[in-house]
Amino acid sequence: MPVAPSHPPTLRHPPIRPRPGARGQAVVGRWLLRGLSQGLLCGLVPVLAGCALLNPTPEADTAADPTTGPAAYDLEIDAPSDLTRLLATHLDLARFQKLPAADAINPTDLNRLVQAAPAQAKALLETEGHFNPKVSVTKQAATGGGLPSVTVTVEPGPRTRVAETDLILTGPLQQAVQAGEPRASDLAQRLRQKWPLDPGTTFRQAAWGEAKTSTLGAVRADGYPAASWADTRAEVDAPANRAKLTLTLDSGPLFRFGATTVEGLQRYQARAVQNLATYQPGTPYTEKRMLDFQERLQRANLFESAVLEITPDPAVADATPVTVRVRELPKNQAELGVGYSDSTGQRISIEHTNRRLFDRSFFGTDLTARNKLELGRDRQSLETDLTTHPLAGGWRNLVAARLQREVREGSTVRSARLRAGRAIESERVDRLFFVEGTSAATQSTDASVADRLDRAVTANVHVTLRRLDSVLLPTQGYALHGELGSGYAFSNVSGNGPFTRAFGRLNAYRPLGSGWLGSARLEAGQVFARSNIGVPDTLLFRAGGDESVRGYAYQSLGPVVNGTVTSGRALLTASVEAAHPLLPSVPALLGAVFVDAGAAAQDFGQLNPVLGYGVGVRFRSPVGPLRLDLAYANELQQFRLHFGVGVTF
Question: Which one of 98, 164, 241, 470 has the minimum C-beta count within 10 Å?
Fold first, then answer.
């Protein structure tokens, strides 16, 4: 059996590239492009002299010999369908049936092919686990001006099955196992437990090759990138249809991360990349740590692409260097957007990002500045953010401000917000800690209600936990988002005092079988404070709209005071949905049915949930799911159309 080289080539992780985001207003973020390549090559046993080399696919035959002549003889293969395809692809009788006139088969050549066919067919059948086949080939002479005919008859017999597997580990991995090191013992146990060819499994050459490739890949990905097969043997007892597998794996040394070198930087500091590393020098190498590092680079919004690689040279195993090759995003980027959403109606937005403010560093780090102006029918806002490039451990410091005017059901709210804090993002968990000053001036459409001016200072923590098969287009898993804030409120019409605000949202996804996809959403929130304390309207709750209770206008569900909708201190909404492809030929286009329920109130005791339900169409696009829903508001007894892009976590 062939043995892998003891010094594998450079291990390179595919480049990351910008990907779309997953927020509800179709804001484009970044692509993450991960590649995973796997070789699959199994040698067929040699066939009799005079047989041509076997091509791996029918397409390869066609490409190699695009010009064919008339058939020189008729060929029939009498075998099970899967074996018929194998023989019709690789058997020389089938390959040479139609040759150009200049190379046409003569009677002598045909006799040679017929004589060689049984041995060649048996060799092919052995690759599918049939070591005791009965193969007969008969030839009928041409009659009445017709063609000679050849019939290949196959009785494959039972398939050979794996009887036992002996996986032998050698090298530093086995030494670590013998020394009782937990990490090595766990890896060795996983290798044996996940060996694909369990006793009773059909022994096929392709499966045998795949099993060796995947097992070796698992070892290389978990600390031993120079691992190789010292020996692999498959001993087949043909009469008993049993195969004994013996494999000896030389792990090579345990690799540990060394220094990280960054190439391709023009404007940004190398520490912006190095601070995102998921390892320290001396940490055991794993492919997952490299991929997590890559994911952090993708989220940094500084790089168009990045390639990570190591050279698994045993000579530097104790401190193997990591090379990161990056291509920077432009320093300045401007975006102009025009659109429509259920929440704000038609809108236009202008956003500008400067990824290195003033072309200089501040306190040892660079700053990214983002400014966004949005002008919509029901909402106008101006936002500005200052964020440091990644600091030690991947954290960022931030300062953000926002001015906003929003027309809601029953009121107009002019608000201002200033926050300062720290944030860190990863593939599975995002964390944000900040202090914030908030001001909200609320003008009711009811002239008898006095205008309010409420202010608050709070300390907050936001955490998002994701366990999803895909962030953009999830089909299985869940995402949990939680917010907790506590502070002091001031009001011109109510009392002053402390309060606490809590909010949580759970999104869950699961395949339901027969092509159906299920999803559910649950969100709840509450402000804890004395009833006379005036909490800013922007920190209270309303329900209704595309991401809440469909069938009702955006933020139209809340406590009603003197016939006017206001914001409440308690929120509870829920949603369930099932979707199924509308056309088998277009699996990305789905039809959906859904039911939403919920409301906002002054407290949970006064909560009176309303119901909305309907049908919709989904298109799973590269920027996230596009949604068009026709919802019926049970309370209002009327229909409403909703449109949305992406998933909100």
Answer: 164
